Amino acid sequence: MNYIKKRINSFRCAFQGISSLFKETPNFLIQLAGAIVALLMGLFFRISNVEWLILVLLIGCILSLEAINSALENLSDYACKKEIHPTIKKVKDLSAAAVLIMAMAALVVGVAIFLPRIVLLFE
User: Fold this and answer.
1) In angstroms, what CA-CA distances link 104 with 58, 66, 109?
2) What is the DSSP letter of 85?
3) Helix ranges, the chain (H)
4) How far apart (Å, rounded) are the C-alpha atoms in residues 95 and 77?
5) What is the fold, at CATH topology level, of the domain defined by 2-121?
6) 1, 30, 53, 121: which has the fewest C-beta neighbours closer than 10 Å?
7) Can you tell me the distance from the alpha carbon of 61 to that of 48, in angstroms, rounded to the nearest whole number?
8) Series of mean pLDDT values for 10-residue runs along the chain (123 residues)
9) Hey, what's the torsion of the CAs at 9, 15, 18, 19, to 10 degrees?
């Protein structure tokens, strides 16, 4: 029974983390809005099953990376007491770069999936 309580608590902590993302991370909300737009476009254009899988996987990657980025930023701020330190700055910059790289890759995929369909609408 102790095992089950620990698993339930781990899910509770994960949901608290998601709540923190909504409350404290503006970039998460921007990325979530983009994800919702992409999902709605997927419904509108009736994308294929493979395209859905790619779209959902990319959305999950971006939102997960933003959560990791936020965690690293919070830990970094705590470790250096919010003072500017070159190593901490580099860690935070690299973490943010990871999110940006994934977002740019997702944008390329989104353009490949949706642009041909958008062009067809205007022909």
Assistant:
1) 11, 14, 9
2) -
3) 2-24, 26-45, 49-79, 86-121
4) 13
5) Helix Hairpins (1.10.287)
6) 1
7) 20
8) 90 96 96 97 98 98 97 93 90 96 97 97 90
9) -110
